[in-house]
Structures are given as C-alpha cells and as structure tokens.
Amino acid sequence: MKILKSYARGAWHEAASNSPFTDLVDPSTEETIARASSAGLDFAALLAHARERGGPALRAMTFAERGELLRGLSKALRDHRGELLEISARNTGTTKHDGGFDIDGATGTLAYYGGLAKSLGDRRVLADGEDVQLMRTDAFFGQHLLVPRHGVAVHINAFNFPAWGFAEKAACALLAGMPVITKPATATAMVTERAIEILVAANLLPEGALQLVCGSTGNLLELLGAQDVFAFTGSADTALALRSGRNLLAANTRVNLEADSLNAAVLAPDVAPGSPVWDLFLKDVTREMTQKAGQKCTAVRRILVPAALADAVEAALGERLRAVVTGNPSDGSVTMGPLATANQLRDALAGIAKLSTAARIVVGSGQRTDGVAAPAGKGFFLAPTLLRADSWRTAGVVHEHEVFAPVATLLPYDGSASAAAAAVAAGGGTLVTSIYSDDPAWTRGVVGGAGSFTGRIYIGSSASASEAPGSGMAMPQTLHGGPGRAGGGEELAGLAGLRPYLQKVALQGARASLQEIAAGV
Ligand code: NAP
User: Fold this and answer.
1) What backbone phi and psi angles, to 5 degrees, belong to 21?
2) DSSP characters for 130-195?
C-alpha cells in the first residue's frame, strides 16, 4: 500500500505506521490505493524553515530569475504529463481529457507566470502606479512600491484540482518572492504528492521555497503571523470555519478565499435554435456540466433560458447529456468518470433531492448508476442530471445550494436583460457567468446589472464562437474569484495575482531617489 509522504524541511516525511491514516480510493472501483497522514510533522519547524531559508533565498532573486524557475517547474511537470494523467485517472476518476484540464492547467499557469516575469526584468520590487508630486517642486514626491512579504504562503486546496490548484497559487507566491507550504485535499493528494516529488527531483527550487503537507494541517494556521498569507480553496463552510480562527483574525494574517459558486449560463432571446450561438451554448453547457463529472468550481449550475425557448433547450441539451458515457476512465469509450469520493456522491444525491423540491428531474434518475467497465455496485457514478423549474423566480433553493456534480437546473426567465441580471445576482456571488447573444444592447444590460455579482463574464457570440474555450476555463490572464458566496477572493489576473503576496509601501522623498529605488533592487 502506498503511503503518501509530506515534504518538510528539505526531506520526505512518512508518518509512523501506527498513526491515524486516511485512505485514498480509486473512485471507479472503490479499491483502496494509498493512505495519508501528516502525523509527526512539526508545523512550527516547517514555518521556521520557510521563513529562514526559503524566503530570504527567493527575495534575493530578481523577478526574471524567479520566472526562470517557474518555467523550469512547468517543464519538469510537462515531461511527466503521461504519468500524472494516469495517477489522476486512478485517484480522481478523470478521463484523459479531464485530467489534462488539471495537469495542463498547472503547467500552463506556471509557464504563463514564468513568461510574465520576463517583462518585469532584473528587479526585486515593483512600482505601483505613477509617482506623484506632493509639494511645490520635485524635491518631494510620492511613489507606491510593492515588496515581497517576509512570511510564508500557506495554501489549502480543494480535491477537484490537485495539480492546477497547487500550481496556480504557488506560481503567484513564488514569483512574488514568498515561500509556499501547500496542502492538497487528502482524498486526491496522490497527484499533488507526485507533482511535488517531480519538482523536488528537478532540484530547481531554493531550499525551503516549497513544502508539502499530505494530511491534516494540525496547528499550522494557529501559528501564522502578520507577514504570512493564507489562501484557501474549498467549500464555503470550511472557508468560514478556517477564516474565523482566532489567530488569523488576531494576527491580521492576509487571507484569500475561493469557495462555492452557483454559476449561471444565460441564453438571450435573440439566439435562434440551430444558429452558431445556439450550438455554442449547447456545447459549452454540456461541457461545463460534465467535464470532471461537474466537479469544477466554474461548472454551470443554473441555465437561464427565455421561457419561449425552454422546451427546445431541454430537448437539445437532453440529447447531448444522454449521449455522455459514464464509467471507468480506463475504458476508451467513457466520456465522463465517477465522482471523486463516496462523500461527494452522498452529497450530490442529497443535493439533487434538495433541488427536486423546487424543480423536476428531466434528464437522469437522481440515483447512483453502475459505470461502464466498472464492477457492478461499485464506483461513485452519477449520470448527467438536468432539472427544470417553472421559473427562476420560484426556484429558491436552486440559487442557494451548490451540487458539486454533473447536475444543473433549467430556469426559464422572461428574456429581458434585467431579469437575467437579477437571476444571476440571486446566486449570491459567483465565479463566472456565461451569456450567449448577438444583441449588444441586451449584453450590455446583463453586464451592467450582473457585473458586481460575478467574478467573470464570458460572452458567447457569433464573433467569439470560433475561439471561445468554454466558461469553465480559468485563464491566468484574467480574474479567478468572485464576490459573496464565491469567497470574495481574487486570484490570477496577470500581475494582480501577485498582490496577496506583496506588501504595499508608500515612499516619500526626492523624486530622483524614489525613481532609483523603484527601478530596482
Ligand atoms: P472542503 O471539504 O472544504 O476541503 C477543502 C480543503 O480544506 C481540503 O484540503 C481539506 O483537507 C481542507 N480542510 C478541511 N477542513 C480543514 C480544517 N479544519 N483545517 C485545515 N484544512 C481543512 O472542499 P472540497 O470538498 O475539497 O472541495 C469542494 C468545494 O470546493 C466545492 O464547494 C467547490 O465549489 C469549492 N471549490 C472552489 C473553487 C474556487 O476557485 N472558488 C475551486 C475548486 C473548488 P482534507 O481533504 O484533508 O479534509
């Protein structure tokens, strides 16, 4: 039986055999494939190692040097893509394509930030905005600088992106000059453990720049201080519990949260059945419901359609969803794998029952199914499930409860931009909203009404259809995060992704001296 190790203070740590272990299972067969425990780790020592070794080493490097490092990390993972995909299939139940979404997302984000660093060049601080004259002459000016925080970035990630989740956070922290302690969700930690093993073996990172915790974080969060950063991705309930920790509040540790999201796809009334935008809408919604078995924070949960088009959408989407082959990803015919854990399946079934109080199931059974190429009665399989409510206005629980599975609800609305925006807002804050229209006035209306309730708006139109990658893809150039229920956090968005890890300081003095400082070192 494989025992997952943590990477702490420059060495691999395995918990003693009599420690309390958590089992990791193959979600297609329910076979136990590994065990994890962080028992025996001294979290104060991990923090000290990062603060005393990793931080100073990273801060001594220029942005260009840190970028070089990120590009090296990206390449090292890319070189092991096939192996990582196999582990992902076994530990998380992903098809090759879905596993690629995670692994390629990780390498792509590391490479993107590596490239971005080139433009920052041989400097160790960033100027924030233009300098400004504060007195009568240029003898006294002001300039804001961004400098690396002298602490540790502690990252806790969700089970659904064991590679990308780790890499997108680590890329920003390392480029900013902060050492990282990363903790994957235990259920899918095999992928992260192997990824870190590859990166350690590549021997690119300074000592103390990256440590891994497999298993519980023990008292780690209670030891964080004012220079540290805590970034979390997971459920809203865990986010609330962790952010309320007395120490984080008392120390004013910087906290960034990514949580639940009831993302909406909105079809406009100008889109005719059979048109290119109609086809894009159906293709996107099908993908965003079923990719990674719907276990994406950016998956579509609410599908808003003009009431007059609801029957046509139900029929066309139903046809696509029924064509999905659910089963063990080791079989080439399978297009959607199982849910990742028994708990996920249990929660999804309970969630469908909850949604059924406000909507009726029109595709799927709301029950577990057997999967193709999986033993009968085994595996956490749930076929794509579509529900339909009479109106978005009476669908209460659909706007409140996230079912983290291939499950979404059709919500008819009256076709107006104002109703579409109000329905998006009813989700209480989301990561992404996709809208499908060739009508600029309608599109502007939805953006104006819904913009402050969602982190990103993806616009599908005839002009964008040829390149549009689907609303679920969080790209490093643009914001990932959302207000309210989505956690209120902000990640990625190019250079802005470094902000949690940089401290802003205002300099005041002679202009020439400020310019010299801002230019460099
Ligand atoms: P979760 O149960 O909240 O767990 C998230 C992480 O928190 C895991 O690493 C978990 O570790 C850890 N954790 C739980 N309790 C903890 C504690 N007391 N102290 C320290 N760490 C603790 O969420 P999940 O089931 O992994 O992920 C699904 C959720 O994540 C969904 O709600 C989804 O919407 C959300 N999500 C959001 C985004 C986003 O970007 N907004 C992205 C992906 C997922 P263990 O596994 O060891 O318990």
Assistant:
1) -100, 155
2) EEEE-SSSTTSEEEEEEEE-SS-EEEE--TT-TTHHHHHHHHHHHHHT--EEEE--GGGHHHHHHH
- The SS3 assignment for 336 reads strand
What's the pLDDT score for residue 268? 98
Is the CB of residue 56 less than 8 Å from the CB of residue 232? no
Residue 283 burial (CB < 10 Å; 0-12/13-18/19+)?
Answer: middle
208: its two tokens: 């103390």
Cα dihedral: 21, 26, 29, 30 (round 10): 20
Read off φ and ψ for residue 5, nearest 5 degrees.
Answer: -110, 160
| Cβ neighbours of residue 286 closer than 8 Å, sequence gap 6 or more | 317, 320, 321, 324
Are 278 and 270 spatial neighbours (Cβ–Cβ below 8 Å)? no
pLDDT score of 336 more than 80: yes
Nearest to 205 by CA among 90, 323, 57: 57
Q: Encode 368-421 in three state secondary structure.
A: CCCCECCCCCCCCCCCCEEEECCCHHHCHHHHCCCCCCCEEEEEEECCCHHHHH
**What is the C-alpha separation between 139 and 134, in angstroms, rounded?**
9
- Please give the distance, rounded to the nearest whole angstrom, from the Cα atom of residue 155 to the centre of ligand 1: 11
Of 224, 94, 220, the closest CA to residue 164 belongs to 94
Residue 357's DSSP bridge partners are none
> Whole-angstrom Cα distance, residue 60 to residue 130?
25
Tell me the pLDDT tens digit for each residue of 225-265.
999 999 999 999 999 999 999 999 999 999 999 999 999 99
Are 177 and 58 contacting, i.e. CB atoms less than 8 angstroms apart? yes
Ligand 1 interacting residues, C-beta cut-off 6 A: 156-161, 183, 185-187, 217, 233-235, 238, 242, 258-261, 297, 402, 404, 431, 486-487
| Mean of pLDDT values over 355-374 | 98
Of 485, 319, 307, 322, the residue nearest 411 (C-alpha) = 307
- Angstrom distance (rounded) from CA 54 to CA 51: 6
Please compute Rg for the chain using Cα positions.
24
pLDDT at 96 over 80: yes
Which residue's CA is the nearest one to ligand 1's atom 19?
217
- Mean pLDDT across the chain, nearest whole number? 97
Q: Which residues pair with 376 in a beta bridge?
A: none
Q: Is residue 521 very low, low, confident or very high in pLDDT (cuts 50, 70, 90)?
A: low
CA distances from 68 to 12, 64, 120, 171 (A): 25, 6, 12, 11
pLDDT for 308 equals: 98
Using CA positions, which residue lies closest to atom 43 of ligand 1? Answer: 297
Active site residues: 258, 297
